[in-house]
Amino acid sequence: xxxxxxxxxxxxxxxxxxxxxxxxxxxxxxxxxxxxxxxxxxxxxxxxxxxxxxxxxxxxxxxxxxxxxxxxxxxxxxxxxxxxxxxxxxxxxxxxxxxxxxxxxxxxxxxxxxxxxxxxxxxxxxxxxxxxxxxxxxxxxxxxxxxxxxxxxxxxxxxxxxxxxxxxxxxxxxxxxxxxxxxxxxxxxxxxxxxxxxxxxxxxxxxxxxxxxxxxxxxxxxxxxxxxxxxxxxxxxxxxxxxxxxxxxxxxxxxxxxxxxxxxxxxxxxxxxxxxxxxxxxxxxxxxxxxxxxxxxxxxxxxxxxxxxxxxxxxxxxxxxxxxxxxxxxxxxxxxxxxx
Length: 340
Ligand code: WQD
Description:
By secondary structure, this protein is an alpha/beta fold. It is built from 11 helices and 14 strands.
């Protein structure tokens, strides 16, 4: 069924995008990647090919260049799009709101323009649990009102609105909005994973850099939250489970029209201290941490109500926190060996 279906993956050399490309190729789809490499490397394309034995087409292109987007749709008959490309650092978005609104919204509008011109009617969009804001009760479910607490989050809220309105005006269009919780881990091959440049904003890659000795100590942002051990609770989902959720969503999108939204999470939360303990187990040594002040904008707890993805997509995440830390650590060790 998927043979000869060709999927454009924007941001396909990024952390989540690359794992989705692997599973698309393994599921028999043809894959075209468009990425401006602002937060990833061209080597990821070859790594995807090494894992799958199939080479995706690759265009180093920026969605801000509408002509370059049109060119891809003219070179290939694109049956569907999975849209990851976008800037995603919360703190950076507060400091550079114009860059975030311009990049994330204009890029999406260009993509939709080219899709409309070429009659491509299927879009799976990379959204985020950040759209649930700070006031909804956990577990978050898809019926809850959306809000945001920073420009990055508002670009996700706005893109969900844009996609919903455009699909409403085009009855044959199929749009799925996937709200990720906290993606972590890496492909078991150790060839692709999360390897941010510089000092990571997110917990798991920061812990990994403390485990390798690149950073001296973990700063736990607050231990006085209303949670079992006082530290922040999040719904960590293995990036390979998340990728499998995209394959299920794409299959659903090809057989339905209209817009729908799904949480992709595990349905339960783990605290910062639990993740630190799990990573210590994975890397075989105690990891140093200090309690630091709360990070502005953080909420105490965030985890998904996963019933809709289970009932409609038949999707349930399988990996445990231990699996996520094990695969993360394996990827980091492979990376270190490569650099030797
Ligand atoms: C997790 C927990 C921190 C770093 C963010 C984005 C979200 C999505 C996922 C894109 C929190 C604590 C963190 C550290 C810590 N990204 N922490 N020390 O904030 O839940 O979500 O990434 O869509 O939009 O907001 O993830 O990994 O930054 O934080 O104690 O050095 O770890 O307080 O409780 P977050 P995170």
